[in-house]
Amino acid sequence: MLRRNPVPQLCILNGTAILPDRLLSDAVVVCRDDRITYVGTAQSRIPASAEIVDAKGGYITPGFVDIHIHGGGGADVMDGSADAVKTVCQSHARHGTTTMFPTTSTGTDDQIHAMLAACGEVRDTWNIESGSKIAGVHLYGPYFAEGKTGCHDESVCRAPEAAEYRRYFESGIVGIATCAAELPGAAAFYRHATKRGCLVTCGHSNSSWNEMETAFQNGMRHVDHFWCAMSNVSSVRKRLGVPMQGSMLEYVLSNPEMSTEVIADGMHLAPELLSFAWRMKRSERLCLVTDCNRALDMPPGKYRFGPEEDGSWFTSDGKVGWASPGSLASSVMGMDHMVRTMHKLGNVPLQDAVRMATLTPAERTGIDQQVGSLTAGKQADILVLSKTLKVKQVHISGERWAQSR
Ligand SMILES: [Zn+2]
Ligand SMILES: [Zn+2]
Predict the structure, then answer these.
(1) Which of 41, 175, 242, 374 lies 20 to 30 Å from 124 when distance is taken between CA atoms?
(2) DSSP string spanning 310-328?
(3) pLDDT class of 405 with cuts at 50, 70, 90
């Protein structure tokens, strides 16, 4: 049965709490209504009236925050209906994501407006049955550079026009905004998105160091899925000739203010790259993202990336999406898988892997006062994980998500 009202008091114990900088064994986490009220080890803090959750020697972590997510459970947020968006929120809640930024692909003006409206409706009518909460939309497509569109439909890819994107921002729901830095109009787009309080990012781009520097001056602070659909020294050389110039890669690694993200599914990037990204940017400037498409928890087969009606086709083999042989089309895995992969294959300490899936994306998008860590006063978004980091329970705003496994 779904519980429709928050439990007045909830106490999770007998587990190791994962804090941003350390593990806290034999932890006690207490919540009242939708807030965390205590995190520590004092057994004396367990209220007599609280409902007790036994973590059974596993882990207690904050709910995951995903800033780059297209779909799941058979639906893509670009399908443009509230039902589709809700299916995505529910499918990712099962994998521990409690806060998300549904992410546009390339699409027509009408398709993007339909997506923004659907996400607004689901956000405004949230209850526990809806699953993961929507913190904002990631306006990702359509402002990608030619030749760097990856699995997105290139025919609806374009340069940013103020008359068009101002209306997207007027929806009030855009929290993250991507544009390739070399496109005409990118500077004005970045300034507008910065003024609207967005995390401003450059992705699907072949931009040079100098273009990144200009973008940075206009507010750009993040690069989408590091190493994927972005420039490197030789791709910039092909575009701009000699002398060889720095690319997005060198720019991100050298600028401490820049953050980035990795698709840590073990299919997009080899373990040494996951480990390298963490050593270079540390967990304060590196996010884990799923970049998940609609094939999450679906059988292997052919699916559309982006809108159901005319998105580009890809094939899921159950491990990853393929646009064509040898060319990937985003992931088919939830955030729990990314955290396990980063920790085990990337050899990253558990508290760092979790920080990259919680507090860091929350900080970069300005929602860290509300979510992202087990801290008294924050929203009670809490996961119970097994010793092998499988999701056992999901609590969102103090309520138990009943479909958690
Ligand atoms: Zn992408
Ligand atoms: Zn993506």
Answers:
(1) 374
(2) TPEEEEE-SSEEEEETTEE
(3) very low
Distance 150 CA to ligand 2 centre (A): 9
pTM: 0.97
**Please, is 255 exposed, middle or buried when counting C-beta atoms within 10 Å of its C-beta (0-12, 13-18, 19+)?**
middle
Helix (H) or strand (E) holding 306: none
- Tell me how far apart the alpha carbons of residues 74 and 158 are, in angstroms, rounded to a whole number: 27
Alpha-carbon torsion angle 386, 266, 220, 123, nearest 10: -50
Distance between CA atoms of residues 86 and 82, nearest Å? 6
Model confidence over 266-278: pLDDT tens digits? 999 999 999 999 9
End-to-end alpha carbon distance in the chain:
14
DSSP characters for 240-269? H-SSP--BHHHHHHH-TT-EEEEE-SSSSS
One-letter amino acid identity for 324? S
No. of helices (H) and no. of strands (E), the chain: 11, 23
**Residue among 291, 336, 352, 368 flagged as catalytic:** 291
Give the pair of three-digit tokens for residue 241. Answer: 């000739």
How many A from CA of 314 to the centre of ligand 1?
A: 14
| pLDDT surpasses 70 at 385 | yes
Measured between alpha carbons, how far is residue 129 from residues 137, 208, 278, 400 in Å?
20, 45, 35, 10
Q: How far is the CA of 349 from the centre of ligand 2 (A)?
A: 26
Closest Cα partner for 68 from 163, 177, 148, 161? 177
Ligand 2 (ion): residues with CB under 5 Å are 291
Ligand nearest to the CA of 203: 1
| Closest listed residue to residue 336, CA positions, set 281, 295, 293, 290 | 290
Distance, in Å, from the CA atom of 168 to the CA atom of 148, rounded to the nearest integer, reads 23
For residue 288, how far is its CA from the centre of ligand 1 (angstroms)? 14
DSSP code, position 63: P
Domains defined for the chain, CATH in brackets? 9-61+375-400 (2.30.40.10), 64-364 (3.20.20.140)
Mean pLDDT of the chain: 96
Give residue-wise pLDDT tens across range 116-125.
999 999 999 9
Query: Does 222 show up as a binding residue in the annotation?
Result: no
